[in-house]
Amino acid sequence: MDRAYNGETSESETFRAHAHVWRHAFNFISSMSLKCAIELGVPDALHRRGHPATLPELAAALSVPTSKTTFLGRLVAVLVHMGFLSRQKAAPESNGMSEHEADELGFEYSLTPASCAIVKGQPLDLSPIVLLTLDPIFVDPFHCMSEWLKSDSETDSPSLRTPLHMKHRKSMWEIKAQDKKFDQRMNRAMASDGPVMARLIMDKCGGRLFEGLRTAVDIGGGTGGLARELAEAFPEMEWTVLDLPRVVAGLERTRNLKYVGGDMFEAVPPADAVLLKWVLHDWSDEESVKILKRCKEAITSNSKTGKAIIIEAVIEDGPEEGETMKLFYDMIMMVGTTGKERNEKEWAKLLREAGFSDYKITPLAGFRSLIETYT
Ligand SMILES: C[S@@+](CC[C@H](N)C(=O)[O-])C[C@H]1O[C@@H](n2cnc3c(N)ncnc32)[C@H](O)[C@@H]1O
Ligand SMILES: C/C=C/c1ccc(O)c(OC)c1
Questions:
Q1: Can you give the residue ranges of every domain in the chain?
Q2: Which of 19, 29, 289, 367 has its CA 20 to 30 A from that of 72?
C-alpha cells in the first residue's frame, strides 16, 4: 500500500497534497477571471481614472448596473488575490460615506504592475494574447485531449490530426480563414507581440544582427507587428512581410516596408535575411523543413552572407519560469496545430535537414530565443 494511505504520512503532508490538487483543479478560475477583467475593461477604467476607485465607482466606470455591484465585488476580490488589483482602505471622508457603508465598501482599488501590462492599447499590452489564448476555439478542444490521445493517428483521418480538429472538424487555419472575428483576434494577438520582441531583439543583439544586410523578409509576419518596428529601427534596409493574401490584403506599405501575399510552402521573396517568428512551432518537422528549404532558396539566391533568424522558444534553455511557458505553449501547439516547441537538438536537426550550416542561439528575456542560422 502506498505511504499516503498507511498512516505513516503526517496529516499535514496529506493536506498539502490535497491543497496541491485543489489548486490545480481550480486554476481555470484564475484564467477566466483574468479574461473577464480584460473584457470588462477593469484595468482600462482604472488607468483612465488615474487614481484608485471604490467598488461603486468602478462599477459605474464599467457600466455594471447597481444590481450587479456586489457580484462585481466578488470578481474584484479574486483579482486582488491574483495580484491584478491592489486594495487599500479608503479615507471615509474622501468618498462621503457613512461609517457603516465604509465598513462594507470602504476599500479602494488600483492597478498593479501585472494589470498595467493588460491596459488596452499600451505599447506592450498583453491583453490580445490573453483573449486569444482563452478563446473557446482553443479552450474547448482541451476537453478532447484524452479522447484524441487514445485515437490512432495511423488511420490518418484529418479530423484526428489535432484535438482542435476533433472538436471543430476543421484545422485552426481553416477556422482562421472562415471566421473573420477569430482571424482578427489572432492577427491582433500576434501583432501585439511585435513591439515587445523588437525591443528585446534590439536590446540583446543591437545593430549586429542586420550588419551588412540590405533586405529582410518576415515570413508569416502577419500584419507586420514585428517588421514595422524593425523597419523603423533599420531605416536603411528594405523590409517585406510575407503572409497569406487575405491577412495582408489592404495593408499599406510604408517607405521601406511592403506586404506580399503568398504561400511560404511555395515560394519566399528573395532577401538577405529571412525572419520566422512563431511560425515553425505551428508546423510538424516535415512541414517546417519544407518552409526552411524555401527560406534557404530565398537567401542563397540573393546574398552570400545571408541568414535566417528564427524567434521561438528553445526548450530547456533559460530560467525556470520560462520553462513553464514553454511547456504550456507546447500543449497549445499540440492541441491546436501540427507543431510543437523544440529543444536545441530538435532545432539543430531541422536546420541541418533544410540545408543550413551553422547556428547560434541567443536567449531573449522571457521564454524565447533568437536562432541565427547561415546558408
Ligand atoms: C502564429 S502566427 C505568427 C505571426 C507572426 N510571425 C508573429 O510572430 O507575430 C502564424 C502566421 O503564419 C501565417 N501563415 C500560415 N500559413 C501560411 C502560409 N502557408 N504562408 C504564409 N503565411 C502563413 C498565418 O497567417 C499567421 O500570420
Ligand atoms: C492560443 C494561442 C494560439 C496560438 C496559435 C498559433 C501560434 O503560433 C501561437 O503562437 C504564440 C499561438
A1: 11-117, 126-374
A2: 19
